[in-house]
Amino acid sequence: MPNGEYLRYVALGDSQTEGLGDGDDTAGLRGFADRLAGHLTAVNPGLQYANLAVRGRLAGQVRAEQLGPALALRPDLATVVAGVNDILRPRFDAAEVAGQLEEMFAALTAAGTHVATVTFPDLGSVVPLARPLSPRIADLNDRIRAAAARHGVTVAETARPAAVADPRMWTTDRLHASSVGHERIAAALAHALRLPGSDDSWTLPLPPQPRPVGRSAAAELRWAATFLGPWLGRRLRGRSSGDGRTAKRPHLLPLSATPAAPQSPRA
C-alpha cells in the first residue's frame, strides 16, 4: 500500500505473535503484533487488526488452523511468524517447516495480501544449552529468506543485530522476547515495511548497564529445571501450553477496541 496505509492487518503465528513476554494473561498480552498495529494505526487511524496466533503452535498447525480464517478476513497486510516450536522439537525438518511457511506465503500473496515475516535469532547466543540448535536456526532462516523472495514477502532481519543477545531483550525463561524485545521486533517490521517515521534504530545496542555477572553452570541447570524441563515434559506427554486456547483477536477491530477474552486452557 502506498505510504503504508494498510486497512486490514492480520497476524498469524504462535506465542511470539500472541505476545507472551509482553504483559500477562491477567492484565493482557501486547506483543510485537499489537505494537506493529500501533505503528500502522499512526499512519492510518482507520486500521482494523486481528491476531489469530495461539501459543505452542507448530508451523503446520498455524497453517492448518489460521490460514483459512486469515484469508476470510481479506487482509491487505499479514505477518506470518512460526517455526521456533518446531526447532525445539527432537525431530526437526527445516524443509518441511519452511514448506508450511511457504504455503502460507503463497496463499496470502495470491489473495493480494502483502506478507511480512522475520528471521530468528540464534538461541545459542542467549541460552548456552541451546547452542546445538544453532545450525537448525540458520538453516530455517536461509529457507525463510528463499521462500520469501519467491513470493515477494517482506523479511525483517531480526536475527542479525548483535543487540538480540542482550538479556534485556528476553524474559527470564529466555524463550520469549521481553517487552523491549517485542518493541524491537515491531520496529524492525515497521522499518522493513518502510512505514513513515520508521528507521533502523531498532538495530542499535541497548543503553549501557553494569556488566552482569556471568552465568554459572549451576544457574544454567536451575534454568533448565525451571523452564526447559516443564516445556519438554509437556511435549513428551503430547500436551501444549496452547491446549484449549483460542485466538485473542479473531475478528478485525480497531486497535483501541478490546476484544472478548480468549478461552483459557481446560483444567
Q: How would you describe this structure to a colleague?
A:
- By secondary structure, this protein is an alpha/beta fold.
- The chain is built from eight helices and eight strands, in the order βαββαβαβααβαβααβ.
- The strands form two sheets. A six-stranded mixed sheet has the order 7-6-5-1-4-8, sandwiched between helices. A two-stranded antiparallel ribbon has the order 2-3.
- The protein is globular and about 50 Å long.
- The relative contact order is 0.16.
- The mean pLDDT is 87.
List the helices and strands and how they pair.
Layout: E1 8-13, H1 15-18, E2 23-24, E3 28-29, H2 31-43, E4 48-51, H3 59-72, E5 77-81, H4 84-87, H5 94-110, E6 114-118, H6 134-151, E7 154-156, H7 179-192, H8 217-236, E8 249-253
Parallel strand pairs: 1-4, 1-5, 5-6, 6-7
Antiparallel strand pairs: 2-3, 4-8
Structural key phrases:
alpha/beta; six-stranded mixed beta sheet; 39% helix; two-stranded antiparallel sheet; 12% strand
The average pLDDT is: 87
> How many helical elements?
8
Rg over C-alpha atoms, rounded to the nearest angstrom: 18 Å
Structural class of the secondary structure composition? alpha/beta
Query: What is the CA-CA span between the terminal residues?
Result: 45 Å
Along the chain, the helix and strand elements come as: EHEEHEHEHHEHEHHE
Low-confidence stretches: none
Largest sheet: 6 strands, mixed
Helix percent reads 25-40%
Spatially, the strands of the biggest sheet line up as 7-6-5-1-4-8
Count of individual beta strands: 8
